[in-house]
């Protein structure tokens, strides 16, 4: 197809990728509507992309070259065992062919790659979208004005306004546990001594009853940083509102929540890793309930969903960024191949809808095994760990997402 007008609701990773893909594929006018007014590149959360997905996305143009990334090769699973020293005991080491990224730096690279023909508007909150038949889709902004487009892409995350219009019955569901996140300057590790983190290309998963914590290095604006993601039960004193995926953003921890985290680290973690995570500044620490969601459809009429708007996947699968970029790639491929919007959206639903549902199912299995129903980690050896891991995969080739369907 050639021409046509597209509104991309949301201008973060998925939104930038979709806008770039559509413009390069031949869309006549592409407008990005991003509600945030501030600097998106200041977000410092770490994420990973599987090496095979990165190669695939680089070849398609969805992942620009030159974005800072840290290579990871293996993942060590450790348990607290005072007889083995402050770093704990390694119970298994597995291949981990990923590159890690700083969210802000990845977004900045994607934003800089958006073609000049795309109109990127910040501070534009979309409150409603409504299909109007032959007139396309009406997009209502917070100021009350309505703009009309031939196609509207929802790249607006967990609380997608576009998803509400497309499939209002699909809503994120609380998984029963929370995720603590943080990151800190890797240079601070030098003050801890020991050799527990002496291999930068290895990530570490600390295992404990009722949870686990993934720790790995990422590039940062001012040098390498250590990123960590800790999954566990929520505090039982009602401090968290479990209806909001971002209840306590960076810098928003209450003293009681900070105390809960400190007690968990002291009780369950090998001493070295407890001290390491304690290096995180309050401004770089936050907690969120874990949600997931399958949508009944990802495209219909003149509405299409991408990234977290299309499917909310628990982070265990390490697939979020790759999936968003694959969604953008699929949209571009369909735009070049199809002769109508109906054909475009039908093909997108067939491929990306199934991919999202598969990711949600796998991440649920991972969450059950690594948080909700943790095994007796300390008594397991490498062979038992490998068998346990295969059971979680349930036939999937691994985590990080699959190659795209041609």
UniProtKB/TrEMBL annotation:
Alphabetical list of Gene3D superfamilies matching this protein: 3.30.9.30, FAD/NAD(P)-binding domain
Database matches in InterPro entries: DHP_3-monooxygenase, FAD-bd, FAD/NAD-bd_sf
Domain FAD-binding: 292-360
A Pfam family per the record: FAD_binding_3
Name under which the protein is recorded: 2-polyprenyl-6-methoxyphenol hydroxylase
Organism: Streptomyces nojiriensis
């Amino acid at each position: 197809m050639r021409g046509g007008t597209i509104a991309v609701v949301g201008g973060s990773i998925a939104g930038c990728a979709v806008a770039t893909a559509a413009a390069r594929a031949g869309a006549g006018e592409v407008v990005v509507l991003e509600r945030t007014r501030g600097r998106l590149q200041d977000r410092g959360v770490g994420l990973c992309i599987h090496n095979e997905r990165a190669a695939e996305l680089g070849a398609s143009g969805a992942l620009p070259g030159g974005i800072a990334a840290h290579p990871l090769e293996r993942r060590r699973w450790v348990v607290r065992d005072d007889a083995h020293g402050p770093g704990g005991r390694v119970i298994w080491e597995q291949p981990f062919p990923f590159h890690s990224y700083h969210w802000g730096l990845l977004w900045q690279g994607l934003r800089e790659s958006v073609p000049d023909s795309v109109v990127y508007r910040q501070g534009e909150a979309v409150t409603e979208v409504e299909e109007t038949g032959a007139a396309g889709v009406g997009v209502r902004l917070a100021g009350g004005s309505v703009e009309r487009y031939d196609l509207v892409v929802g790249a607006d995350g967990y609380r997608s306004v576009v998803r509400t219009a497309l499939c209002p019955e699909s809503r994120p569901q609380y998984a029963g546990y929370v995720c603590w996140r943080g990151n800190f300057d890797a240079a601070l590790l030098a003050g801890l001594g020991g050799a527990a983190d002496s291999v930068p290309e290895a990530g570490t998963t600390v295992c404990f009853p009722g949870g686990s914590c993934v720790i790995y290095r990422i590039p940062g604006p001012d040098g390498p940083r250590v990123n960590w993601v800790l999954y566990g039960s929520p505090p039982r004193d009602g401090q968290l509102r479990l209806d909001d995926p971002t209840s306590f953003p960076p810098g928003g921890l209450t003293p009681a929540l900070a105390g809960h985290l400190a007690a968990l680290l002291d009780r369950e973690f090998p001493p070295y890793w407890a001290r390491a995570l304690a290096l995180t500044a309050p401004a770089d620490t936050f907690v969120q309930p874990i949600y997931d969601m399958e949508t009944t459809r990802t495209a219909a009429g003149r509405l299409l969903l991408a990234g977290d708007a299309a499917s909310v996947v628990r982070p265990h699968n390490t697939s979020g960024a790759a999936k968003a970029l694959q969604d953008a790639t699929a949209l571009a491929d369909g735009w070049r191949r199809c002769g109508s919007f109906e054909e475009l959206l039908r093909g997108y639903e067939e491929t990306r809808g199934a991919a999202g549902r598969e990711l949600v199912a796998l991440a649920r299995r991972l969450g059950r095994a690594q948080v909700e129903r943790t095994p007796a980690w300390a008594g397991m050896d490498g062979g038992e760990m490998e068998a346990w891991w295969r059971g979680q995969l349930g036939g999937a080739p691994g985590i990080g997402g699959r190659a795209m369907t041609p």
